[in-house]
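Worked example 2:
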Amino acid sequence: MEGPRLRELVVQALSSVEHGYDLLAPKFDATSFRTPDWLLAATITALREYGPFERGLDVCTGTGAGLEVLAETTAERPTGVDFSMGMLEQAREAHPEADLVRADARALPFEAAYDLVVSFGALGHFLPGERLALFAGIHRALRPGGTFALPAGQGPRPTHPAYWMLTGFDLAMRVRNAVWRPKFVMYYRTHPRPALLRDLTEVGFVVATTPMPGVGELIVARRNQLSPGAGSSQAAERR
């Protein structure tokens, strides 16, 4: 598959998030934005100590990379949710066995329906003030005792050129969104680990982590067996 040309990427970047991904969808899997197979494999391995799981949901599924994790870790037909119809069409071609739902991840239409929720590479599309709604919706979607698994890679240090490349990208995106509409929300440095653990705890998750050698760690947020819904406050733990 041939990846998108520069002009196509520019058009996408000047669009809204939803329309931009509709445009990019047919060539998305040929870009570096797709979740790499090594990260999917590491997540599958890390999840084995927390299973078995019956039913799974991939939030912001895109073309369906996370559905591959659910196929290996859950017993029932997996579900993927995304708000880009173009991305869902690609996911349907690649994963005809999955149930695919179009919805905004900040208002998930599920209630105590899943044992496992995963999400890959999506946090940059949510502003810090939107994370609580995202995590609260995931909490509601889980059955009591259910697990939300969120891979967290090792970010580059300030001494590494990649650190400044990501910082420069975020700065350029802030300038773009200040002068251009519609906004395209995609940032790399707006979801540091302490903020994620705090927000997950605030909506009612009990949070732990497990190492993924060579990758980083898997944040494992579990809905309390006795909790009737989101909103309780639990202390974050490190496994």
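Confidence is low (pLDDT under 50) at residues 229-239. The helical segments are 6-13, 17-24, 37-47, 65-73, 85-94, 131-141, 161-179, 193-202.
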